[in-house]
Structures are given as C-alpha cells and as structure tokens.
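quick one before i forget lol
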Amino acid sequence: MNELDKRGYFEMAFGKDCVDDPAGDPSYILESELGVTKLWPLRIERLVEDTDTFFDVIEVLHDQVSRPRMRQLHSYGGCGWHHSDFSIDSGRRLYVWQVNQLLDRGDLSLRLAEDGEDSGRLIAATDDARAELSHVMAARTDESTGDRVRHAMALFRARGATEHDKRSAVLVLAGVLEERKAVLKAELLSKDEDALFMIANRFAIRHNRADQQSNYDPVFLDWLFWWYLATVELTDRLLARTSS
C-alpha cells in the first residue's frame, strides 16, 4: 500500500498533500467507510490485532485506488510529483493482482474477486478448476439468468458466508436449472436429470417439509453448489450448440 501510495495510486481519492494546498487526512475517508478511526497511515501491528479490520481495509482501498497516467513535478518545498489522468479500471486490476500475489503466499484461504458481482471483495479461495469455472460464469451474457448466477456466486463465496447464504445460493442455481429442465431432459438420461432436483428437494434446500433431511453436514452445500454451477455451464453449452 505504501508503494502504491508513493506512485500516486491513491491520489485521486485522498488528494495530494501539497505544500501550497494540503490535502485532508485519508483516515477520515476510511473512517466514513468503515467506522474505524486513525487507520492511515496503515500500521501492521494494528491490522494484525484485528483481522476483520484488516480484511475491510483491503476491500475499501480497492475502491479508492486508480492508476495515474500523467504526473508533473512540483519542486517547491520538496513537494514532489502531482499525478493526474487517472484510470480506475487499470488501477484496480493492478491492485487485485498485487494483493492476490501476497494472499496466495499466506494461509488465509482468501483472495480478491477479479470479476462478478463481488469484484474487489475478499472471497474464499478455491482450486484452479473452480476458479476458472467462476471466471467463466461471472462473464455470462445470458440476460435471463446471468445476474442471478452472479448473485448466487457472490452469496456463496463471500468471506463471511453463512450456511443460510450458501443454501440461498444453491436455491438460486436450482431455480435456473428448473427453467432449463427441458434441455436437461432432452440431453441427459432421465434418471440423471431427476437426480439433480431430487437432492435439492430431499435435503431441506428448496422446501421445508417434515419428510426432508435437515441434519446434513454443511459441507454438503459446497459440493451441491459447485455441481449446480457446473451444470448451469453445461446447459449454456448445450443451448449454444442447439442454436448454432
């Protein structure tokens, strides 16, 4: 963060602390977003003591960063460089890449989302195959289901996702697959298509009936979410094949 700050990446949000026109305290901007005082300049020991604040700072600074494409030296009083012509998109992309490089070296099992409804927010890290599936699904162009799928992904992979959040995410994907039942029936064996919905119906996910199983391990939701997400991706390809 200090390196990015020196290169002007927070100057659009925080202003330039110029000798002729001093900028305000960035701490007030962070305080307005997080409700925590005196966070800037960042102090390692404070962030280590409170990991929730640490995670919040990572996310809020993503929203403040932008890449300067021009600079002008102001030599008076040793003021230094003034930056301008900022690009928010490229600044955030660089920020996400650098932060994820560091997070991947640790054991927090978190990384910043690169795309989707939760872009710039910390999400649960996964293996490369599921990460690639998430990337593909976040870029979907199907207007009828794209937003719902992205919302389901944001619910499921949020760093603070609860069991209820994950169940809701599975429910959204089950709804998308329900709308594509005809495609699944036509392309899959009938028993395979039935199995998709039998599990959601029998395990207290879509309904809340007395005959449903509700005491299953929550890790079951993880398996079901990725199975449904991959099946949505499969139906995308099946639909594309039939329309071509």
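fyi The CA atoms of residues 66 and 91 lie 4 Å apart.
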